[in-house]
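Appendix B, example 12.
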Amino acid sequence: MRPILVTGFAAFGEHVENPSEQVVHRLCAGAELVAEVLPVSYRRAEARLRALIEASEPRAMLLLGLYAGEAFRLERVARNRDEAEARDEDGEVRSGRPISADGPAEHASTLPLAAFAEALTGLSLPVVWSSDAGGFLCNHAFYVARDLQAQNGRDVPCGFLHLPPLSALPLERQIEGVAACIEILRVAC
């Protein structure tokens, strides 16, 4: 059986702790689950994500990242635009630039987001919905994964879940929530 791919991002800038990195490190990777932390670099994260997808041919992809809110944020859409003034780890700034010159303006998440919301709420975890994954690397990775899937004619669940800072929600609770989402993918895929 093909694995489920779960990615997070390394700590960056003023964010000395990235819950997505810590959650990914705590997941039990193996034949059924490939878990990896991506660098906070447009070029290197995209290259690594493409290599992971090609090598593992996942049956589902759950991408994780950090945002400043206090809840799990379910992302509905990835936009074909980098719109951040922040520098990545390599010093690159991308603002007002398409991710894919020939790609559509946006890709919708194909994750079972309603089931995720129900499971998270059932665990008494806070949930918010979003139609904007931001303009930095979270949106970039989300778009790249969905665009690659579309180009290859694959129809597997794929999307993005933002996690709050550890100051807003302890790591163990975040792991519990992500594990519940992974279990939904295991059963559904």
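The mean pLDDT is 94. The domain at 4-188 is CATH 3.40.630.20 (Aminopeptidase).
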